[in-house]
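Here is one chain, start to finish.
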Amino acid sequence: MKGLFKSKPRTPVEMVQHLHELLVFVLGNTETREKKRAEKIGELDKLLLDIRTVLFGDGQIEPNTEACAQVTKEFFQKDTFRLLINCLPSLDSGARQNATHVIANLRRQRVNSKVIASEYLENNLDIMDILVPGYEDSDIAWTYGAILRECIRHQNVARYVLESDHMKKFFGYLQNPNFDIASDVQATFKELLTRHKSTVAEFLSANYDWFFREYNSQLLQSESYITRRHAVKLLGDMLLDRSNSAVMVRYVTSLDHMRIMMNLLRDSNKTIKLDTFHVFKLFVANHNKPPEIISVLVTNRSKLLRFFGEFNIDKEDEQFEADKSQIIKEIATLQPTDRPCQDLDSF
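Its structure:
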């Protein structure tokens, strides 16, 4: 008889409402019977999969636009997003993965032509204060990192993170001994510093001194070649972006910065050498080189010319060869200044 009275499938709105109820239960009932709690978490896991199916389809049936809109509207209206973020540490890896996919989909869903996730995040920026420190917990680092990158695709969210104290913490997170976590942090760090051009330019200009001091000491001069490799590549991406032209001009007038680049040119890793080359050429190409930079380049002229004469890459690259020829020509024709060369390790 029991099989004759199957429960009616939940509507998309009811799914989200029930998800909300389960999240509240799991977060607020830490001292309940373990069996009961496990049942609720199991139900939560299944419900996340069901919602994911509504949003993505099941491989045979495409997702229904109206159902997706209903899920999205209900999800953000009742602050279910925040509840799910807070509950993630209680879920297993499969449920966390489903949650990440659900959030990624909801972030770009439109309701009446509006991406309502953007307005929600703008009104709940403090959620980033939960997500960013998630890198300190190895169990949830990847999940929070993936969700964080989805959120900072919205410019107002990226600005909040850039202007917060969290940015200083990234330099520590980037040196996590766990390679996978460090790589995830690197992906987020790059997203923050390259996606929203005008916001990044404002941030770098306003925070130039402390940011590049930390960048140089903790990343470019790190003992980890992986950290150095990522750092010099990202530095090149930032400085060569037209929106950061003012920052680039300021950077390439610093002898300390050029000294770091000269040391990295001697790195044993070919990739680091090549990426450093693309930054170093900016110092040489600068038409307003300070006298101390000219003096160092002249003092090390013969060694630099020999280095670049022998510096080659594994594949043919006309632009690389043209840039290298220009650097060689510029260094070869530099005129000494009257200012004595500052103390600098010989190249």
